[in-house]
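Forum: Protein Structure Q&A
Topic: Joint prediction for protein chains with partners

I've read a bunch of threads here and the consensus seems to be that you should model interacting components together rather than docking separate models afterwards. I'd like to see that in practice. Below is the full input, 459 residues plus whatever partners are listed. Could one of the regulars post the assembled result?
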Amino acid sequence: MSIEAEYDEETAALYRKWVGRVQGFLIGMGCDHGLAEEIADDAFLGARRQWCRVRTFDGPEGYVFKIARNERSRRQKEHDDRAKGLHPDPPGAVRDVNDDHAQEVADRQTIRQALQQLPASQREAVTLRDVASLSEAATAEIMGVTIGAVKRYTFEGRCRLRILLAEFRPGRGKDDP
Amino acid sequence: MTADEEPLSSSLRRLGDGELNDAELDRRVVKFQGALRRLRTDPAEAARIDVLVTATEFGEDPRSQAKVVAASDIALMVRRAAEGDRQAWERLVDQYARLIWSITNEFRLMESDAADVAQTTWLRLLEHIDRIEYPERVGSWLAATARKECLHVLAARKRIVLDTTEADGGTAHEHQADVQLPADQQTQAVHDVLSRLPRRWQRLLELLMADPPASNAEISAELGLPPASIGPTRGRCLARLRVRLQAAEAGADSRMAPYTPDDTQSHRDWAVVGDLVHARVG
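Posted by a regular:
Agreed with the consensus. Here's the joint model:
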């Protein structure tokens, strides 16, 4: 097997393991499903371009998250301009599935809406820690802040998110009987 | 994590993994493998992905427009710009344009002056980019250059304001000769008036306006004038020159014009007369 093919295989293995979480991070940060998929794929391709170096890192996925984070900011605006006035999810997406799945999709939609209400730093820390399941150190490295800052952003973000979710889900909030 | 946080984290984690079931993941991996092949065979695709990598490696912070760039990257940008890399040059401009504008703001320059300073500063960088000793400190170099250019603009403006003030003020009539005479006539008039001053005074003006100017000690030695007398003599000399220029303009006999020493006026006249003397000496 050539070195290029070997690198392709390693990158594909990384992709299989992490693409869901990278995409979740992007969705948590406000991207719609199509854009998140596009950016996640590009981020892994970026890692492949530098794979001879990136493969030596302790956590090569951190490099992917960095590219994804950077690219999201740039492309989100372009995408918003293009898709202005369009609903991010195709109409009827929830109606076409069974009740359980519809409830799950609705829950995800609620969480996404609540996440968008958080300040950017808290949203980023919460999505990296809880959606992408990254460690505090990896989150700090990706965000370019200290671990202490990550702890604070995450704690404050979770507290705020819990309040927001209670508001978004009447009848399931902590103040309800 | 507390027990209370557990359901929240579970919900959040589903946002990531829950978006992709196994079938969807297999489909995505196949698609990604196709993208990997295209990356190897299509140079345009490789170039597009390299742009993303470069943007990340240069440390762009997506949360703000300010870019935190490592010193080694700055040095690299400077070197590439010196070699003619247009993209590197544009990145340098992006990186430091705000710095230069902030310096022009410190000096409270008008917008047009600030634009001139910014343009001149970048021009200076372009001229010297291959000779910058510490390329990683190009920001400091640009800041120092911008400050120097701001001072030049302020100095030029100060000279202009001085002329305007005098023209608008009550002493405007004292410079009517300068304003009303055409340039060639003015030069001739100054030449005539200077030639009618005492020889010692002519020489004093020449020494004072020399570039570099002669020191008081040198003037004192050449003219046999006590150093403390040089200033007052210069004042009388300029006053006489001004009066005779007015008289020449009025068509009167300059030899009959009254002589009124005015040290304050002589200081204001100094810059104007200096230029005239330069013209004569030159």
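Confidence is low (pLDDT under 50) at residues 85-97, 173-177 of chain A.
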